[in-house]
UniProtKB/TrEMBL annotation:
This is Cyclophilin-like fold protein. Pfam families: Cyclophil_like2 (PF18050). Residues 72-171 form the Cyclophilin-like domain. Residues 1-25 form the signal peptide. Keywords: Signal. Residues 22-67 are annotated as: Disordered. SUPFAM superfamilies: Cyclophilin-like (SSF50891). InterPro entries: Cyclophilin-like, Cyclophilin-like_dom_sf. It comes from Streptomyces millisiae.
Length: 181
């Protein structure tokens, strides 16, 4: 059994155990490694695709200077930025990426990254908000939140923000992320 499937089964078992023992599973259950293998690759976007800073009403985006990136969800461009955390900088080194997304917990779309990110110097934890791009360090998952996430955790690092509706993000099957020119 490959390690991703094994990790997924362990994560589902932990999720079920935590849900059975908790009144509020969202606060006690971390994101799962149930994503399928990521498919790193490139996809060309039309030059000059718009990139603007995220909605500043999100606390996750207030804490740093944004770095523009180009993102497409299912072939449609969306505005997005990365924050200036060390983990976001390390994530930018992986670009371009094309990843297949899976739903997790009715809250986020997740995918495995090709390698772990450097989490040294991470900012104080904050709870994920709709549109946040995050990294769940224990399993190396990229998480795109289409519902507000769990309570703040040192294991969940906010990398940036997508300016997209919760509905569009919740239905997304594929994301392509590139460095802005």
């Amino acid at each position: 059994m490959n390690s991703a499937v094994r990790r997924g089964l362990i994560g589902v078992a932990l999720l079920l155990a935590a849900t059975a023992c908790s009144d509020d599973a969202r606060e006690t259950t971390p994101p799962s490694p149930s994503a399928t293998s990521a498919s790193p690759g490139q996809q060309t976007m039309s030059p000059g695709a718009p990139s603007t800073p995220p909605d500043t009403s999100s606390p996750a985006s207030d804490r740093s200077t944004p770095m523009d990136i180009r993102v497409t969800l299912d072939g449609r461009p969306v505005d997005a930025t990365l924050n200036d955390s060390p983990a976001a900088g390390d994530f930018a080194e992986l670009l371009p990426l094309t990843l297949d997304l899976e739903d997790f917990h009715g809250t986020e779309r997740i995918a495995d990254l090709p390698r772990e990110l450097n989490t040294a110097g991470a900012p104080e934890p904050t709870a994920a908000r709709v549109g946040d791009i995050a990294y769940y360090a224990p399993w190396g998952n990229l998480a795109l939140f289409y519902q507000d996430g769990p309570a703040p955790s040192a294991d969940l690092l906010i990398l940036g923000h997508l300016d997209v509706s919760a509905d569009q993000l919740g239905r997304a099957d594929r994301i392509t992320i590139e460095a802005a020119s």
